[in-house]
Design a protein that fits this description.
two-stranded antiparallel sheet; 12 helices; alpha/beta; 10% strand
Length: 416
């Protein structure tokens, strides 16, 4: 608009002075615009040149910040190292570790280079003093307590603790008695098995049984014929009684029946090892496992009643032709509970006598058997244990006899 106004005014004006004025005005305007353009270009060049400088300046500032951060990290790290060194020096003072001491001195040098070296040195001294104090406390904790001082491990106050002292002390005493009784039982059980193991490991089991068997094998297994009584009893302890009515030869309906060899010596050894009750025949006479009454069973009944016997294990022998190692006779389940039969069977099996049958060959169902008589005339449970010859004769197989004795000891102790 300005340009067109000036040009029109020059064309219309006839006065020379006005034309000169308009021309000068036009030149001034042109020079002004030219100067503005030049200044704009100059400013753009300056911005373009200054941008790298700003970047460079920012880069320098970033580097300075990184250096400061690194220095602060070093300060923290060195301070941590210093504390760590103090801790190591405290725990290993007696060992005199020079490496920890040198590390501590290096950490102090790094800290002394920072902004407030005087304060850092003072804090180091405080920490060193603290470390020495902790070391002294640690060393004192290893010393025995003063005999004059009583250590109270219970954090509860004595007033609260003594509210009802009698009740609190009563329960531990009862438990202690129970534990003592349990320990005594376990010790007694282990002693019997240990004695058996000693005999077997020393090779004395067979000779011991053979020696015990001589009292029955004398006089061609008629036993001690000079004895007045047919039977003998060895008093013991516990609730189990062993019976061996065929320790010697015996007479049944006028005929001599052969002995169940080694049942008598097995009974004597079991009594010696476990201290259980035992009744056994001493000489040839009535068949105590056949006649319905007789001396043997009558005295057995009286002994059971007088000594509160709860279980009678009546030992017998069967021939080696039988297919089982043990046959249990229970009067067809009447003379003893099934649960106890299961336990006895499992104890045989666990001890190494694996082949056990129940009422397969000998049920003890006849009224004259010791098992049936005990069941029908006393409150005690009873079971007839028929033992295969291979598990009775130590001359033939000592290991099997050992396993049999181990089983019977376990049964006796588990029911006593």
């Amino acid at each position: 608009m300005i340009w067109s106004f000036i040009i029109k005014s020059l064309l219309k004006s006839g006065d020379k002075m006005k034309k000169i004025y308009y021309i000068l005005t036009l030149l001034i305007i042109l020079l002004t615009f030219t100067a503005c353009d030049v200044s704009v270009l100059t400013n753009q060049k300056k911005v373009a040149v200054e941008q790298p400088k700003i970047v460079t300046k920012n880069t320098k500032e970033n580097k300075q910040n990184q250096i400061k951060n690194t220095q602060s990290d070093k300060i923290k790290s060195s301070t941590h190292n210093k504390d760590y060194v103090l801790e190591i020096n405290k725990n290993n003072k007696d060992l005199g570790e020079e490496s920890s001491i040198s590390s501590k001195s290096e950490s102090k040098k790094e800290i002394s280079k920072q902004n407030s070296p005087v304060k850092e040195k003072e804090s180091d001294k405080d920490k060193v003093a603290k470390g020495k104090k902790e070391q002294e406390e640690l060393s004192n904790s290893d010393k025995p307590l003063n005999e004059n001082k009583k250590f109270d491990a219970n954090p509860i106050s004595k007033d609260v603790e003594n509210i009802n002292p009698k009740e609190e002390k009563a329960e531990p005493i009862i438990n202690a008695d129970k534990e003592d009784k349990t320990k005594q039982t376990v010790t007694q059980q282990s002693i019997a098995l240990q004695k058996l193991d000693d005999l077997y490991n020393q090779g004395k089991l067979s000779s011991t049984l053979i020696q015990l068997e001589k009292s029955f094998s004398q006089n061609n297994y008629r036993g001690d014929i000079g004895q007045e009584k047919l039977y003998n009893v060895k008093s013991g302890k516990g609730k189990v009684m062993i019976s061996t009515p065929h320790s010697t030869s015996h007479i049944r309906e006028g005929n001599v029946k052969v002995v169940d060899i080694y049942t008598g010596s097995i009974g004597l050894l079991l009594q010696d090892l476990t201290g259980t009750h035992l009744i056994y025949t001493t000489k040839q006479g009535e068949d105590a496992n056949y006649i319905e009454d007789g001396q043997y069973k009558e005295y057995l009944k009286q002994y059971i009643d007088d000594n509160n016997i709860e279980l009678v294990l009546d030992l017998h022998g069967m021939s080696s032709s039988k297919e089982t190692d043990i046959d249990l006779g229970t009067v067809n389940g009447k003379s003893i509970s099934q649960s106890k039969v299961d336990i006895i069977s499992s104890l045989f099996s666990d001890s190494g006598v694996k082949n056990v049958s129940v009422n397969r060959y000998f049920t003890a169902n006849y009224k004259g058997t010791v098992t049936h008589y005990t069941y029908s005339h006393t409150k005690a449970e009873s079971i007839q244990i028929e033992i295969n010859r291979s598990h009775r004769n130590p001359r033939e197989n000592e290991e099997k006899v050992y396993l049999l004795l181990k089983s019977l000891i376990t049964i006796i102790e588990s029911n006593s």
